[in-house]
Amino acid sequence: MSSTSKLNEPASNLDPLRIVFAGTPEFSATVLQSILAKGHLVSAVYCQPDRRVGRGKKLTFGPVKSLALENDIPVEQPIKFNQEADENGVTAVQRLASYSPDLMIVVAYGLILPQDVLSIPKFGCVNIHASLLPQWRGAAPIQRAIERGDNATGITIMQMDEGLDTGNSLSTHSCNLSTNETGSTLHNRLAEIGSRAINEFLDGMNKESGSPLFPGEHQDNQRANYANKLSKLEAEIDWRDAAAVVERRIRAFNSWPVCFTYVGKNRLRVWQSQVFHEVTDPDNVSNSKATDIQPGRLISFDKRGIRVECGDGKTLLLTRVQADGSRSMTAAELLNSKIQWFINHPVLGG
C-alpha cells in the first residue's frame, strides 16, 4: 500500500486520539462536522449554556450542541471552570479530566480556559483562530480584518496558553481578501480553511508522540493587534468618516451587527454600498474644500441607490438596505414605498 493511501485511511482504522471539542457557534460546528467526517473520535463536546433567543425568548441549542446530539456525543455546558462542585460533588475541571482526552480542540468556545484545564489533555489544547496570529487577537478577527482593509488573513492553529491568543503558532493557512468581502463570506471561507487545517494537523498526530509541529513558533508580540468584540452601538454609521472607511465597515458588519443610520427618526440598516471616488460635485471646485463638506448630506436617490456625502467629500451609494420591520431589499425597492423619508430629510444620521 502506498504512503498516500495510508494517509487517506479513515482515522477509525488507526489507534484513535481521544478528542474533546470546545466550541459554540456555526463556525465551530463547521469544523466539528469535518472532524467527525474524517472519523476522529470525539469523546465529548463543550459549548456555552443554551440561550433564549427571538421575540418569544425560546431556549435554543447552539449549532455545536445540536450537531453533537445528532451524533450521540456527550455535551457539557459549564458556566465556567472553577472549584464549584455539581450535585454529584464533581467540579467542571474534574468532569473534563474524566474523559481522559489526548487533545482538546477549541474553536470560538467563549470561555477562558485556566491552566488546570489546559494541562489536562495529554497534548494540551489547540485553538483554531481566524487570523494569521498575531495579526488579530481577540473576539472579532474576521470583521476587524475587513474593517481595517487588510489584504490577507487566514487561520492559525495555535497551542493554547493562559494568555489571550498568545500561544505558539503550530501552522498557518492564508487567504486573500476580495474588495467585496463581507463578514459573512469571510466567516464561511475561514470555517472551511480551518476545517482543512485542523484535519491536516490531526493527520500528522500520533497517539504516543503527538504532533511533529509541537512546540511551534513564538508569536511576535510587537505585531499584535486586538480585535475588540463587536457591539450594536458601533454599527451606527458616522458620516464624518471617509467613504472608504464607512464602506469597509458596512461589509465587515454584514451579517452582524449590520451598520445602520437614521432617516429622520426612522432607522435604516445598510447591507451593501459602494464608494464614489470623485468629490460631491467635480464641476464645483469649492465642494472639494473641507468647509463645504456636510457629512450625511443626501446627494441623490434614484433606482441606482441612495447617495450620501461622507467626511472626506466623497460619497457612498447605498444599494441594499432594510427598514425596521421589513426585509433586506434594494434601495430602489425601498424608495418605491419610502421615498417621502428622503424628500423630508436631506441629511442622514442620528
Topology:
Elements: H1 3-7, E1 18-23, H2 26-37, E2 41-46, E3 51-53, E4 58-60, H3 63-70, E5 75-76, H4 92-97, E6 103-107, H5 115-118, E7 125-129, E8 137-138, H6 141-148, E9 152-159, E10 169-176, H7 183-203, E11 226-227, H8 243-252, E12 259-263, E13 266-279, E14 298-302, E15 305-309, E16 314-323, E17 329-330, H9 331-344
Parallel strand pairs: 1-2, 1-6, 2-5, 6-7, 8-11
Antiparallel strand pairs: 3-4, 7-9, 9-10, 12-13, 13-16, 14-15, 15-16, 16-17
Helix pairs in contact: 2-3, 2-7, 6-8
Description:
- The protein has 350 residues and is of the alpha/beta class.
- It has two domains: 3-227, Formyl transferase, N-terminal domain (Rossmann fold); 233-344, Methionyl-tRNA Fmet Formyltransferase, Chain A, domain 2 (Roll), CATH 3.10.25.10.
- The chain has helices spanning 3-7, 26-37, 63-70, 92-97, 115-118, 141-148, 183-203, 243-252, 331-344; strands spanning 18-23, 41-46, 51-53, 58-60, 75-76, 103-107, 125-129, 137-138, 152-159, 169-176, 226-227, 259-263, 266-279, 298-302, 305-309, 314-323, 329-330.
- The longest helix is centred in the middle third of the chain and has 21 residues, at 183-203.
- It is elongated and about 70 Å long.
